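Data card: per-record layout.
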Amino acid sequence: MREHGCPEEDLFSFLSSKRREDLGYRNILSSMCTPPHPVAARTHAMFLETNLGDPGLFPGTASLEELLVQRLGALMHHPGAGGYATSGGTESNIQAFRIAKKQKPVTSPNVVVPASSHFSFQKACDILGLEMRTAPLDDQFRIDTETLEGLIDRNTVALVGIVGTTEYGVVDPIACLSDLAEDRDTFLHVDAAFGGMVVPFLDRPAAFDFQLPGVDSISVDPHKMGMSTIPAGCLLVRNPRWFSCLNVDTPYLTVKQECTLAGTRPGASVAAAVAVLEYLGMDGMRAVVAGCMENTRRLIEGMETLGYPRAVTPDVNVATFSCDHPPAGWRVSKTRAGHMRIVCMPHVTRDVIEAFLGDMSDTNA
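The structure for this 365-residue chain is written out next.
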C-alpha cells in the first residue's frame, strides 16, 4: 500500500488505462453475461451502499429482494415460493444441495447430475462431501433418461436437470425427471441459471418449473438474460420452510438468524434486477428473447450456408458448430467436444451477427 495517497486525476487515469485493456462486449460472442440494461445501471448507482446481510438496516432494499423472489416465483408458476438473492448459479446450486442433503440424512450421500452440468456442481460436491454421479447424454446433448434410473439409489439425495445447458443451449426433459424424482422420493433441483430467463418467454415454452410436482428448487440468474448488474442470482424453493435447516445464529445483526451462504450481500444488483423486470414486464422480456432467438436462427442459417453445420438445434440462444477457426478479432469459445460455441446475448445484435458471418466468409475465401 502507498505511504501517501495518489492524486485523484492520476488514479483515474490509471484506472481508465486498465479498463481499456478489457475486451469490448461487441466482439465477445462467448459470454452468458451482457452489458446491463440502462435502467439496471441507474438503479445500481442508487443502492451502492446497501447490504442485504443486515436487512434491518436497509428495509427498503430488503423489500426489493422479497419482490424479486415473488416476481421470479410467479414466473416459475409458484408465487409462494421461498427464495433469496444469491451471487449467481454457483451459490444457488451449492445451497440447493445443502438443503437436499439436510432433507435426507444418509451415511454416504450422492447426487446425480447430467454430463452437461455446470462445473459449480463439482464445487458443491467437494464442499459438502457428496459423491457426484454423472449421467450420460443422448445424441442431442440432453440427459439420457434411459440410463438415469440405474444411477439412483437409497443414498441419492438430489437429482439435477438443466434448462439451457452452458455448452449447447438445450433443455433436459424436466417433466420426465420430475416423474422420476417423485417415484424415487428424491429432491429435484433445476439449474435454470441461463434458461430461466429465456424459456418462460418463448412462444411454446417447455414445462420445467414448479408446475411440475417433482421440482423442488430452481436457480435463476437475472445477471444473464435478465440484464441486471453483476452479481444477481436467485435460488427458489417449493417450500419456504426448507431454508430454516440452513439457519445459523447471527446475534449481533438486525436479524438473529441467517440462511444465506454469504454474509455481506450487495443490495444494488438485487434492486437492479427488480428494476429491469418492472420496467420491461412480460411483453418487454418476450421481445428481448424473441430478438435473441431470431439472431440465433440467423447465425445458424448463415454458418450452415458457409459449410459449418450446427452441432445441435438449441432450445435457447446458444449456437454450436463444427468449425475449428473463428475469424480474427472475435471471442468465441469451444465445448468439451470441440464445437465452436456462440451465445446470442442482447448485445449480439443482428448487425453483429452479419459482421461475424462476413468475417467468416472472408476466412473461407
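Known properties of this structure: The radius of gyration is 21 Å. The mean pLDDT is 96.

See the next section for split statistics.
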